[in-house]
Specification:
40% of the residues lie in helices and 28% in strands. The chain contains 3 helices and 4 strands, in the order E-H-H-E-E-H-E. Strands 1-4-3-2 form a 4-stranded mixed β-sheet, covered by helices on one side. Helix 3 links the parallel strand 3 and strand 4. Helix 2 packs across helix 3.
Amino acid sequence: MEDLPTGVGFGPQTVEEGPPETLEEAEQLAASIEKAVQQETGRQVRNLSVEVHPDGVLLKGRCDTYYCKQLAQHAAMGMTGGDQLTNSIEVS
């Protein structure tokens, strides 16, 4: 599966908020996405890191199946507020 950016935006609350404007907001968003991904995947993503940049969100880590990678992406997509999402989680 290629790590291509995915245009996302679910739910009126996240779309209206837009990208984080401060470092604190970016860190809060990253923590929220990380928590959502770990809950959705049953903590199956190892070494998970979530990076929030002005141009989008980057997921990194490792998991055992493509299904787990897809679950992680789906969990993150609901929280990115219309930002680009790049899923660089490796399946091994």
